[in-house]
Amino acid sequence: MEILPDRNTLRRCATPPCDREAKTGRPLGAGGSATRWGCLFLFALFLIGCDHPERVDIGELVEALNALDKDEVVDDDAVGADEINPDDDGVVCEEGEKVCEGQWVMVCRGGEFVQSEHCVDCGPLCQCAESAGNAWCEHTDPGPDDIDVQPDDSVVIDEDVLLSDEDMLEQEPDNDALEATMELPCTGQTKCYGIYGDEIECPEEGNAFYGQDSQYAVMGYCFPRDYTIEGNVPEEVVIDNVTKLVWQRTLPDLYSGCSGGSPVGNTCEWQEAIKYCEDLIYDGHGAWRLPTIAELETISYYNGGAGYGFDEIVFPQLPLSLLSEYFWSSTPRSVPNSGGVKWTLRGTVVNYYADDNKLYVRCVSGGVKKARAFSEYETDGKIIVKDDSMLFEWTKEYVADVSWESALAHCENLSYGGKDDWRLPNINELLTVLDYEKFNPASSFPGLIEEIFWTSTTSIGDDDAYVVQISSGIIDKEKKTLSYYKAICLRNL
User: Fold this and answer.
1) How many other C-beta atoms lie within 10 A of the C-beta of residue 365?
2) CA 468 to CA 453: how far, in whole Å?
3) CA dist list (Å): 449 to 325, 385, 432, 440, 482
4) Which of 49, 143, 331, 340, by CA, is between 20 and 30 Å from 121?
5) Which residues of the chain carry a pLDDT beneath 70?
6) Where does 227-366 sit in CATH, by number?
7) Do residues 294 and 178 touch, judged by C-beta distance below 8 A?
8) Inter-residue contact 460 to 302 (CB < 8 Å)
């Protein structure tokens, strides 16, 4: 097994201060045991250094922390019944472990439990359930149209355990909005940029250009990209530890059964791509499928140069230049009389093509479906749209005809519905409102207009920022100086 170096290690080092929640960046309450141990763990990791991605001996680390904390006395009687405490060895939890705490699913991140999912919207008797290190939301009186979030045992990452076909989840997902797992990956951006794409020192709050993608990433508003490589060359798989998707890492010189390109088989028509993935035996497994467009979007990497859309460390083997490469998705374009048109990904840009075009293919397996759940409520005379599946709140209102700089400032300075912690969404966050089964608008977000909206994500290498066309679902880039586009604001629950 290969643990990816450098970039992913650096992403883990971009951790919010220990006096702030890892999910929301908000200040923590009075420190509990889990928080204190999590902070000590992060501090020790910082001392070790982010430039050294070698594994850390947890036992040795715990002994060191115990030595630092030997004078502390914990009053067991003062600990609430629902509070999650370290085990006898001082380790709070294992990474990725899930437990219930009241109506919350808690997930282990960085050595302590943080809130992951609030069990409030999965049915009339919604509750948190747990078993064998996993937890999920369920209801005890399910109706035929209800969707339960079931425990995810789809990916086992172990040096001595290979993924079985059953583990690879042979289910075929619907072509709907982002199949989110609550853990939305960061875009990969780590720096700040000016109006013409020039790299700038990240501004302080209250200054121009504050509120960019990378600034909220380092405060913990998204989950650092986290991959593991399994298998043997030339049939390695990429396990996305955030989305739980498993990707074909190495593309073939020729796709079996495909008729495009030179030599023949270098690219595929859409139906050929579907069959190629269904028939694929790769890394000894056969449970592959063509990804949805929402799944493809999760591996778009926004920290490369203009047009370069995949992390070259994670997916190093790519034919030709990504500027001329399009990848098929399984998602049809939901427009009347357009049955022969399918969605495609070109680097970081989403568009559609007739299904007789010859494009590239990358197969996927695994993943967890998550039902979307938009609702509205009124407070202080304003309507707020709540997304319980992502723990997001959105302004129902938007600002029109603003530049990118003005869009950032609008959300940062906004007081709406009695709340003042709004921000401009990054590209991954704005994509969560899309529903590719819909058109004009391509969203089930209540009342969202068919317009183009700014994101806080810069297109590195040029003077553009990413925008989303809500009418169709197209992702594109536009000059930051243009004042034709809209801005809608987001906050975390």
Assistant:
1) 28
2) 5
3) 31, 14, 15, 8, 19
4) 331
5) 1-92, 116-126, 137-182, 305-308, 317-324, 338-339, 368-371
6) 3.10.100
7) yes
8) yes
Nearest Cα to Cα of residue 388 among 372, 377, 402? 372
pTM for this predicted structure: 0.65
Cα torsion for 93, 239, 425, 31, to the nearest 10°? 10
Rounded CA-CA distance 362/190 in Å is 27
pLDDT at position 413 = 98
User: Which tokens go with 462?
Assistant: 């040029």
Report the pLDDT value the prediction gives residue 449, as an integer from 0 to 100.
92
How far from 38 is each of 23, 45, 91, 113, 221, CA to CA, in Å?
Answer: 14, 11, 9, 9, 17
Which two three-digit tokens encode residue 381?
């005379």
Give the whole-angstrom CA distance, residue 493 versus residue 489. Answer: 13
DSSP bridge pairs for 387: 374, 392
So where are the chain's domains? 2-139, 192-221+371-492, 227-366
Residue of 204, 205, 186 whose CA lies nearest to 420: 205
State the residue for tokens 């992913």. Answer: 8
Residues 6+ apart with CB under 8 A from 360: 251, 267, 268, 319, 325, 326, 327, 328
DSSP string covering 443-463, please? B-STT--SSEEEEEEEETTTT
Please check whether residue 153 is in contact with residue 146, taking contact to mean a CB–CB distance below 8 angstroms: no
- Domain at 192-221+371-492: CATH architecture: Roll (3.10)
